[in-house]
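Here comes an entry:

___
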Amino acid sequence: MDGTGPGTSGGPRGTNGNRYLVLLGVVAALLVYAALQLWANVGSRLTDSEGSADPQTVWTLELTSFAAWCIVVLLLWRTIPHMLPPRRSWPVAAVLLVVGAPIASAVHVGLMVGLREIAWALAGGDYHFPEGMRGFPYELRKDIADYALLAAIAAALHWYTLRPAPGHGASAERVLEISDGSRRIRVPLASIDRIEAAANYVEIHAQGKTYLYRATMAAVEAELGPAFARIHRSRLVRRDAVRAIESGQSGDFTVTLANGERVRGSRRYRDALV
């Protein structure tokens, strides 16, 4: 599998430098917001304690929580594209996002407690998470709002930075970007002949090469739009690649593509090519 340049898997995409400036700007704004929130939380804890709390301890508590959230954000940034269309259908994506809330909170709490245990050990003390695991529901209630906000921002940024760039000509050519281990393979839509279902994946057939793409047929069809037609429950073809259509007595039909391939179509989807 040959790729042309880096990218992020997930559908027809395009990128430009200005979008990454926006991305950096949003990240900077989030860091400023987080710093202000951190300062406010420390101030609130010290005020509520009426002078009985040790400022160093309060700062350690808040900084460990902040550091744990930073790691969770990085994990969210990596996983969000795999939870949303076209990788998943919208119902599946909704379930994954809901299930992701307690998982993200558990990761946050686990990292936070681990960092605090290290900090206390370095100071010669011993840290105990309040109420043990019984304290997790309380943390989960606090974390849900942060998780929802961060997941929404991650999804929006992925969409914004990786959507097709406006313009004309080769620079605006739509591509399907496919993950192959650590590589990203950019397959121009104009080079794709057909797409077929393969268990939890779809097979992208383009110019004699086959690429595996983790997505459902329905999600891929919705993402690619009218340039591709469904001719079978498990098969899509690029409309511009169709050269001939032969109908059989049963109503099923055979499509001849520009590369000479002949693929079967179901009568149920015959009108898609009209």
